[in-house]
Specification:
Blueprint lengths: L4 H4 L6 H12 L4 H5 L10 H7 L6 H34 L12
Length: 104
């Protein structure tokens, strides 16, 4: 798509990046509107982001972006499920020492 979002965002999976990517997948193409989704904590200005969002919106690239975002969401959910299972297992463990914990 020739969009240069990685040039203005340090993490495209952060709040600003994901909001912009989700809006693109939902059909928004206006760079100014997309840049308006900028999180106030983002270091890049709205104008810088809008310039980086100027590109061509090829259907095949949009399809790949949609699938990539769906995979990102799926894997994120899988990692969260693993984290919850690990947390559950660790919470069931009890320390085996008596008295004060051993010094480090």
């Amino acid at each position: 798509m020739n969009v240069q979002l990685t040039q203005v965002l340090t993490d495209v999976t952060g709040a600003t990046g994901l909001a912009i990517l989700r809006s693109i997948v939902a059909g928004e193409r206006d760079a100014v509107k997309l840049a308006g989704l900028r999180n106030p904590a983002c270091k890049s200005s709205q104008d810088e982001i809008a310039k980086a969002l100027t590109g061509s919106w090829q259907p095949e690239h949009l399809f790949v972006l949609k699938q990539s975002l769906e995979l990102y969401d799926f894997y994120t959910a899988q990692v969260a499920a693993c984290d919850a299972a690990i947390e559950q297992h660790f919470s069931a463990l009890k320390p085996r020492w008596e008295g004060a914990p051993p010094a480090r």
